[in-house]
User: Fold Carboxylesterase type B domain-containing protein from Acrobeloides nanus.
Amino acid sequence: MVQDNYFMPDVPRVLWEKRPNIPIIIGTNKDEWAFMELAFVAFGIKNLSTYDEGWFECEYSVLASYLNKSESVNSKSLLEAVYVPYGLAADDHLGWLKLSVS
Assistant:
C-alpha cells in the first residue's frame, strides 16, 4: 500500500491506532457451499456418485444460460474450459465434488 495523502492519508499501522473503537466482523464464506454439499451427502440427499461429468453439464448449463442469452458464445464450454481441471475423468466423483465447491 502506498500513502498518497488522498485516499490513504497515512500508513495502515497509524490509521489502525487512530481508528475509533467500534466492533467489526471479519470472516469469509469461501467454503460455505462445501458445507452444504457435504451435508447433502451426510443426510443422504445426494451420494458421492451424484457428482460426475453429467451432473456438471446439467448444473452448469443452467448457470451458463444466465450468463449468456445469445448463442454466439457457448457459455457452458467456456465454463468447462475455465473450471474443469485437465484430465478429470468423467467418473471421478470426488474430483467433480471438489470442483462443485471450489
